[in-house]
Amino acid sequence: MKLVDTTFLIDLLRGDSGAVEAAEALEREGGAATTSVNVYELFTGIHNVADAERRAEQAERLVGRLEVFSLDETSAKTAAAMTARHNRLGEPLDVLDTLIASTSISNGCRTILTRNIRHFTRIPDIWVETY
Asked: Under CATH, domain 2-129 is a member of which superfamily?
Protein backbone atom coordinates (compact mmCIF):
# COMPACT_ATOMS: atom_id res chain seq x y z
CA MET A 1 0.00 0.00 0.00
CA LYS A 2 1.19 3.50 -0.79
CA LEU A 3 0.58 6.63 1.21
CA VAL A 4 -0.76 9.63 -0.68
CA ASP A 5 0.46 13.04 0.42
CA THR A 6 -1.51 16.26 0.56
CA THR A 7 -0.11 17.46 -2.77
CA PHE A 8 -1.58 14.38 -4.41
CA LEU A 9 -4.98 14.85 -2.74
CA ILE A 10 -5.12 18.50 -3.84
CA ASP A 11 -4.06 17.66 -7.38
CA LEU A 12 -6.62 14.87 -7.57
CA LEU A 13 -9.41 17.20 -6.42
CA ARG A 14 -8.29 19.69 -9.08
CA GLY A 15 -8.48 17.02 -11.77
CA ASP A 16 -4.73 17.02 -12.53
CA SER A 17 -4.21 14.38 -15.22
CA GLY A 18 -1.10 12.92 -13.59
CA ALA A 19 -2.87 12.56 -10.26
CA VAL A 20 -5.94 11.02 -11.91
CA GLU A 21 -3.78 8.44 -13.72
CA ALA A 22 -1.92 7.65 -10.49
CA ALA A 23 -5.23 7.28 -8.60
CA GLU A 24 -6.47 4.81 -11.21
CA ALA A 25 -3.27 2.79 -10.81
CA LEU A 26 -3.64 2.83 -7.02
CA GLU A 27 -7.21 1.53 -7.35
CA ARG A 28 -5.96 -1.35 -9.52
CA GLU A 29 -3.26 -2.09 -6.93
CA GLY A 30 -5.77 -2.27 -4.07
CA GLY A 31 -6.09 1.29 -2.82
CA ALA A 32 -4.08 3.77 -0.83
CA ALA A 33 -3.75 5.38 2.56
CA THR A 34 -3.14 8.83 3.94
CA THR A 35 -2.65 10.21 7.44
CA SER A 36 -4.69 12.33 9.79
CA VAL A 37 -2.01 15.00 9.33
CA ASN A 38 -2.68 15.02 5.57
CA VAL A 39 -6.40 15.36 6.28
CA TYR A 40 -5.58 18.34 8.51
CA GLU A 41 -3.48 19.98 5.78
CA LEU A 42 -6.12 19.33 3.12
CA PHE A 43 -9.01 20.75 5.11
CA THR A 44 -6.97 23.73 6.32
CA GLY A 45 -6.52 24.71 2.68
CA ILE A 46 -10.17 24.10 1.90
CA HIS A 47 -11.34 26.35 4.73
CA ASN A 48 -9.39 29.20 3.15
CA VAL A 49 -11.22 29.24 -0.20
CA ALA A 50 -14.46 30.90 -1.25
CA ASP A 51 -16.39 27.73 -2.10
CA ALA A 52 -15.22 25.82 0.99
CA GLU A 53 -18.47 23.93 1.55
CA ARG A 54 -18.50 22.35 -1.93
CA ARG A 55 -14.81 21.55 -1.80
CA ALA A 56 -15.13 20.06 1.68
CA GLU A 57 -17.83 17.70 0.40
CA GLN A 58 -15.55 16.59 -2.45
CA ALA A 59 -12.66 16.11 -0.03
CA GLU A 60 -14.86 14.11 2.36
CA ARG A 61 -15.74 11.70 -0.46
CA LEU A 62 -12.09 11.37 -1.45
CA VAL A 63 -10.80 10.81 2.08
CA GLY A 64 -13.61 8.33 2.68
CA ARG A 65 -12.13 6.09 -0.02
CA LEU A 66 -8.74 5.96 1.72
CA GLU A 67 -7.43 4.24 4.79
CA VAL A 68 -6.47 7.04 7.21
CA PHE A 69 -3.57 6.34 9.57
CA SER A 70 -3.75 8.30 12.82
CA LEU A 71 -0.83 9.95 14.56
CA ASP A 72 -0.26 7.79 17.63
CA GLU A 73 2.35 7.47 20.35
CA THR A 74 4.64 5.29 18.23
CA SER A 75 4.43 7.70 15.30
CA ALA A 76 5.15 10.66 17.57
CA LYS A 77 8.23 8.99 19.05
CA THR A 78 9.49 8.04 15.59
CA ALA A 79 9.00 11.64 14.43
CA ALA A 80 10.85 12.97 17.48
CA ALA A 81 13.85 10.75 16.73
CA MET A 82 13.84 11.84 13.06
CA THR A 83 13.64 15.50 14.04
CA ALA A 84 16.47 15.24 16.57
CA ARG A 85 18.72 13.35 14.14
CA HIS A 86 18.23 15.91 11.37
CA ASN A 87 18.58 18.86 13.73
CA ARG A 88 21.95 17.48 14.92
CA LEU A 89 23.01 17.30 11.27
CA GLY A 90 21.92 20.91 10.73
CA GLU A 91 19.24 19.73 8.29
CA PRO A 92 15.90 20.46 9.97
CA LEU A 93 12.82 18.77 8.56
CA ASP A 94 9.35 20.21 8.06
CA VAL A 95 7.36 19.25 11.17
CA LEU A 96 4.16 18.17 9.40
CA ASP A 97 6.02 16.16 6.76
CA THR A 98 7.97 14.43 9.54
CA LEU A 99 4.70 13.52 11.28
CA ILE A 100 3.31 12.23 7.98
CA ALA A 101 6.40 10.12 7.27
CA SER A 102 6.59 8.70 10.80
CA THR A 103 2.88 7.81 10.79
CA SER A 104 3.33 6.10 7.45
CA ILE A 105 6.37 4.13 8.65
CA SER A 106 4.64 3.16 11.91
CA ASN A 107 1.84 1.63 9.83
CA GLY A 108 4.20 -0.34 7.60
CA CYS A 109 3.79 1.94 4.60
CA ARG A 110 7.15 3.06 3.24
CA THR A 111 6.19 4.60 -0.12
CA ILE A 112 4.78 8.12 -0.36
CA LEU A 113 3.17 9.42 -3.54
CA THR A 114 3.79 13.16 -3.71
CA ARG A 115 5.12 16.08 -5.70
CA ASN A 116 6.76 17.34 -2.52
CA ILE A 117 9.90 15.39 -3.31
CA ARG A 118 12.44 17.62 -1.60
CA HIS A 119 10.97 17.23 1.89
CA PHE A 120 10.45 13.48 1.86
CA THR A 121 13.63 12.28 0.14
CA ARG A 122 15.67 13.36 3.17
CA ILE A 123 13.73 11.03 5.47
CA PRO A 124 15.28 7.59 5.94
CA ASP A 125 13.13 4.52 5.31
CA ILE A 126 10.78 6.40 2.97
CA TRP A 127 10.63 5.85 -0.77
CA VAL A 128 9.19 8.72 -2.75
CA GLU A 129 7.19 8.32 -5.94
CA THR A 130 5.86 11.14 -8.03
CA TYR A 131 3.22 11.35 -10.72
From this structure: 5'-nuclease (3.40.50.1010)
